[in-house]
C-alpha cells in the first residue's frame, strides 16, 4: 500500500505504460530516440520507495524557512527512468505538486500531468513522458505554472565523468578571480574533469574568468536569482540539492566543497584514491580537514605574473591548526545518495558535511586520517559570519604542498589568468584602412572608439 501511495495518483496502474501521449501530442516536433521513453512513476524500485517513505516519516528534509517565496524552477534533469525538478522553495517538503509536461514548442502535452510529492526539500521527482522537452509544476491540475524549463539531459547509460566538483554559491565582497582559477586548476591536477558553479553574487571582473572556463567546456554556471530577497548564504541550501541533481548520472563521484577549499592527495590523485577504496558498495567517503589561517583578502585585479606567484593561496598560506574531523567533507556517488545532503552550521559557514541517507545496500566510509587525502580549508580571519580571529589561542604549524605540485599549479594559473586579464593594446597602424574608411569611422590611430 505504501508503495502504491508514493507512486502518486496513478496508483495501481503503475505497470500500464500508455502510449497515447506519443500518438496524440507529437505535433510537428521531432522526437529523438532518447525522448521516446515513458514511465508511470518516479521510482522503479520497491526498496527505494520504502526508503523514501521512511525518510519522510523521520522528517529528514524539512527546512521550513524562506516560506514567503513563490515557486520558481531552478533546474530540470531527465534521467533514464525519471525526471527531477529543483525548486527555490525551502518550505514544501512532503507537499504535493503536479508535474507538468510540454513539447518542443512549450505546448502542454494533453493528459500528461502527474501528482508527486516534494522530497527531499526543494526537489520533486516525476515520471518521464514521451516527447517532453520542457517541464513545470503546479499545486493543482488547472493552476497557472512557472515558465516551463528545458530539460537538462542526464539520461546517460554510464557517467561521462569519473570525478566532478559542486562549488558552493559564490557571494560576498572578497574578489574571486584568482581563487576561481587556482581552485579549478588545482582540482584538475587531482583528476577532476568538470565543475558545477552556482552564483549568488559576483563582480563582472570575476565573471570573466568563469566565462573563460565555460567557453573551454570545463564548467557550467547556474545563476541563482529571484525577486524575493534572501541572505546569500541561504542559497547554499538550494545549491546542494540542485547540484546533486546536476551531477547524478553525469559523474561517478562528486565532491561538494567551497571556493576556499582544496582536496589534496598523496601518492597519486583523487581518482587513484577512489579506485583503491571503491568496492562497488561505497556511496560516500568522508575526508578530514586541515584548517589553514588566511589573514588577507585576495587582490582586486590582475597586474602581472609576480603578483600571482605572491598571491596564490596555496603558496601564501601554509600554517595549519592540524587535522580534524570537525566539519569534514565527503566524496559521494550522486545516484546512490538518497536525495538529501545533511547541512549544518559550523563557525558561520553553511556547508555540506555528509549524506544522511543512502540508497538501500550502500555504505559510507571514513577515510584513514593519515593525511593520504585531506581537505585544505583556507579559512579567512575576516568576513566571518559570527566573528573573526578564529585561530586565536590555537597552535599552528607549517604544512606545505610539494614544490613540484606548487610549481605546476603556479604555471597553470598564470597561463590561464594571463589569457583572460592581460590585454595587448591594439596596434592601430596595422588595421587595414578599408576597415574604417568604408564605414566612415574616424582613423583608429587618432582615436579608438567603442562602437557598441
TrEMBL record:
Transmembrane segments: none annotated. The keyword Membrane applies. Its main location: membrane. It is found in: Membrane. One of its GO terms (cellular component) is membrane. GO terms for molecular function: glycosyltransferase activity. It is a single-pass membrane protein. The keyword Amino-acid biosynthesis does not apply. Its EC number is 2.4.1.-. Pfam families: Glyco_transf_92. Keywords: Glycosyltransferase, Membrane, Transferase, Transmembrane, Transmembrane helix. It is an enzyme of class 2 (transferase). Belongs to the glycosyltransferase 92 family. This is Glycosyltransferase family 92 protein. It comes from Caenorhabditis latens.
Amino acid at each position: 500500500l505504501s508503495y502504491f501511495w508514493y507512486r502518486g495518483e496513478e496508483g495501481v496502474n503503475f505497470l500500464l505504460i500508455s502510449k497515447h501521449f506519443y500518438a496524440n501530442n507529437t505535433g510537428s516536433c521531432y522526437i529523438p530516440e532518447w525522448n521516446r521513453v515513458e514511465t508511470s512513476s518516479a521510482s522503479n524500485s520497491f526498496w527505494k520507495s520504502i526508503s523514501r517513505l521512511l525518510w519522510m516519516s523521520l522528517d529528514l528534509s524539512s527546512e521550513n524557512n524562506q516560506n514567503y517565496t513563490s515557486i520558481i524552477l531552478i533546474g530540470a534533469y531527465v534521467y533514464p527512468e525519471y525526471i527531477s525538478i529543483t525548486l527555490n522553495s525551502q518550505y514544501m517538503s512532503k507537499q504535493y505538486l503536479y508535474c507538468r509536461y510540454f513539447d518542443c514548442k512549450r505546448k502542454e502535452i494533453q493528459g500528461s500531468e502527474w501528482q508527486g510529492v516534494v522530497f527531499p526539500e526543494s526537489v520533486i521527482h516525476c515520471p518521464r513522458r514521451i516527447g517532453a522537452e520542457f517541464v513545470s509544476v503546479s499545486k493543482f491540475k488547472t493552476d497557472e505554472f512557472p515558465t516551463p524549463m528545458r530539460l537538462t539531459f542526464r539520461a546517460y547509460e554510464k557517467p561521462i565523468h569519473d570525478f566532478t566538483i559542486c562549488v558552493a554559491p559564490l557571494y560576498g565582497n572578497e574578489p574571486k578571480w584568482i581563487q576561481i582559477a587556482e581552485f579549478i586548476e588545482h582540482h584538475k591536477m587531482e583528476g577532476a574533469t568538470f565543475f558545477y558553479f552556482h552564483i549568488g553574487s559576483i563582480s563582472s571582473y570575476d565573471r570573466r574568468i568563469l566565462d573563460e572556463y565555460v567557453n573551454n567546456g570545463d564548467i557550467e554556471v547556474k545563476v541563482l536569482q529571484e525577486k524575493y530577497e534572501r541572505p546569500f548564504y541561504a542559497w547554499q541550501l538550494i545549491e546542494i540539492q540542485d547540484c546533486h541533481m546536476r551531477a547524478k548520472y553525469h559523474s561517478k563521484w562528486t565532491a561538494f566543497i567551497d571556493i576556499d577549499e582544496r582536496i589534496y592527495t598523496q601518492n597519486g590523485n583523487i581518482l587513484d584514491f577512489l579506485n583503491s577504496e571503491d568496492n562497488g558498495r561505497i556511496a560516500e567517503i568522508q575526508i578530514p580537514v586541515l584548517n589553514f589561517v588566511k589573514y588577507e583578502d585576495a587582490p582586486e585585479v590582475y597586474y602581472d605574473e609576480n603578483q600571482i606567484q605572491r598571491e596564490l593561496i596555496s603558496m601564501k598560506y601554509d600554517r595549519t591548526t592540524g587535522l580534524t574531523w570537525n566539519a569534514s567533507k565527503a566524496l559521494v556517488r550522486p545516484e546512490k545518495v538518497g536525495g538529501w545532503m545533511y547541512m549544518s552550521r559550523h563557525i558561520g559557514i553553511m556547508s555540506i558535511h555528509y549524506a544522511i541517507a543512502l540508497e538501500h545496500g550502500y555504505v559510507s566510509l571514513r577515510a584513514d586520517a593519515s593525511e593520504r587525502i585531506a581537505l585544505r580549508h583556507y579559512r579567512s580571519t575576516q568576513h566571518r559570519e559570527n566573528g573573526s580571529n578564529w585561530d586565536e589561542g590555537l597552535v599552528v604549524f607549517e604544512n606545505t604542498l610539494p614544490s613540484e605540485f606548487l610549481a605546476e599549479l603556479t604555471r597553470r594559473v598564470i597561463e590561464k589568468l594571463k589569457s583572460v586579464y592581460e590585454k595587448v593594446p591594439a596596434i592601430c597602424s596595422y588595421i587595414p584602412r578599408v576597415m574604417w574608411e568604408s564605414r566612415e569611422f574616424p582613423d583608429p590611430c587618432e582615436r579608438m572608439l567603442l562602437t557598441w
